[in-house]
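Still learning folds. Look over my entry:

…
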Amino acid sequence: MKNAFEKLGFFIQNNRFSILLVAFLFIVISMQGAQKIEMASGTETFVGKDSPLYQDYDHLYQKIFQTQSIVVMVEGNEVKNAELMEAVDRLDHQLQSTEGVIETTSPASLIKTVNYQMTGRYVIPETDEEIGAIIDQNPDVFSQLIPDNTHMLISVVMAGSASDTAQEDILHATEDAVSFAEFPPSYNIIVTGDPAFMVNMNAEMNSSMGVLLGLSGIFMVIVLFFVFRHVRWGLLPLPVVLLGIVYTFGAMGYIGIPLSMVSMAAFPILIGVGIDYAIQFHNRLEEELHKNEGKRRAVVETIKNTGPAVLIALGMTGLGFISLFTSSVPMIRDFGKLLLIGIIMCYLSSIFVGVVTVSLFDKYSEKNPLRKVAQRIKPAGLGKKEKLEKKRTGNSKEILLQKTTDLTIRYDIIVLGIAGLLCLGGLYADQSVAIQTDVETFVPQDMPALVDLQHMGDIMGGTDELNLIIKVEDTANPDVLKWMDQFSEHEVEGRKYIYSASSIVSLVKEKNGGTIPDTSQEIEDIYAEIPEAQKERYMYGKNMLLLNFNIGNAVSDIKVTGIQELTDVVKQDMQWMPAPPGTTVTITGNNVVFTEVITALTSGRVAMTFLGLALVLAGLYVVYRDWLKAIVPIIPMFIVIGWSGGVMYYLNIEYTPMTATLGALILGVGSEYAILMMERYFEEKDAGASPMEAIHMTSSKIGTAIIASGATTVFGFLALVASPFPMISNFGKVTVIDVLLALLATFVVFPPLIVLLDTWRDRRRGATTAEKETKKQIQGAEI
């Protein structure tokens, strides 16, 4: 491998300016690709489109029956007001001509309909008294749109399959129509609903992305200034890794990876992980440039020696991330793709642009504006007193690490036993960690669209639903409609969280004096009288009907697990009260689809973690061909995974689509530290050191470098804590803690573990060799 990288080193050295030109061209190409990135926040980001549940939801419900509504809520004084109804009527007229709007439903349109039935005039009455009388005499008609005397709702209906762009256009058209409708000044007008919430959330995600990247950059400047001051151009790794991020954005657009709440958190993580690659190349090149063995040779030696080592670390990190591809949650798979692409781009940026830039800047180092600072902190430029102080400080860090190593090895069984017990305790506690899939809890709780949506829920009650798709041989079959009526009544009366039911049955009974006809022909005649827009909400062709159960604020009240249990109860009730022969019923809808996420975030995340362990273990064995070298880096990371479960339980942090990735993330990031420690341990041992001497040298020589590397990673993840999205912020907190735990395991668990196992293997080899020698002597004596 080193021969191949040596050839690459010569290529880079001989084509430095061409490489920078190509890098610049790729920036332009990446910027074009970044414009193709789409925002994603719908159901498809949680549940795979190949899932049977999603297929039922998408093909049977969303494309046929589902509609979405932007809600205009009017609040203030008495809403049974002629002047207010005239403004609502003007709003109706403007919105009905808007592209993508199926219909508008408002108190004004209903009042005109009732007035037409009473007087033959399809107009708004002129007096408040007439309007109040119409509303009071028809409570069933107006109760949903006028929940009380000071609130009114206007529903702007669009297709459930409308694209994000179409929803945003209709939202803006609604906001414009509200301003042109000239509502009386004493009323407050709020435009809300799920589409408004989603549009606002996408905008918030887009704006917070820049904040997260900016904070990551600031944190990196701080950490580089303190841990990377011994080289020239010490801040250069930051623009190098940011270049890798630009390339990642471009690849993201061309490949078609959408930007979701999960994937946008990948970029601060990539800065924290990827900057380590740039630091390794930068540090080694500086070392080679100061050897005075030729400037040209410095690039070659850097690529030859550092390239393979960093590539192995990247490979193990990538294997940990690959396990994310097995998740059934699309946004987690996209997160894994983004991380894998990102670390590759950061590596390429570091080995090409980073190395070339440092080598080109070498002759301009005297012009470096940070040169004076660098000279003050460079050992060669210090006075005797400062040298002694620096030497004492440097030695103190090494001495502390050596003492820690001695202590952990002296009490190796106790240390490993406590670490193991805490791991098992954490794994047990992890089973009790709650799972959260309510999208409203993921976003900033002060987000205006969320506040408005919750305010509307407080006024009119929850709108969560269970949707039952009923496939029949004939939609006019009276037996089917009577079963729907009886089953709906049974569920509403007998099930705590089912508050009401709506279907074509209600419209049929309204037209037939409160009863269902006994013949198909009578039902067909009633169908002919029902407006097509109303009928399409509950019936499709001759073979499909829809029954909706209103379950209030179930997502908030009983959570997704409760909805899953309620769905199972409804299925059991259908077995007890079966539908007529030839009828099949499928329960679907947004809330039912999210039950798929439960499985993904429980058994799915455990499977991801163990797959990641297996992949990294297999990768290490392929690289080293040594079972000890393969297993030793894995054990500390497995222990950290257990500790992480305990941390989440103790901090009361719920599992979300993001925190479900922690196992794979710990493996991907943390295994690097153990691998670097192990590499140096066996390097010292091959040089003739005993296991104790080797681990001492490892802790003192590479320990401080690993701490510095860990600090850059921690600071990269720290930006996530400042995210306004609670899901990302909690993920950042746990990830920072987990990286610190990985560093703790590297210096506390790894030393006694490798010394214990390596010593045991040496003894076994010695015993085996002694046995062979004894057998040879016995065989010689017999001869």
Summary: Residues 377-394 have pLDDT under 50 and may be disordered.
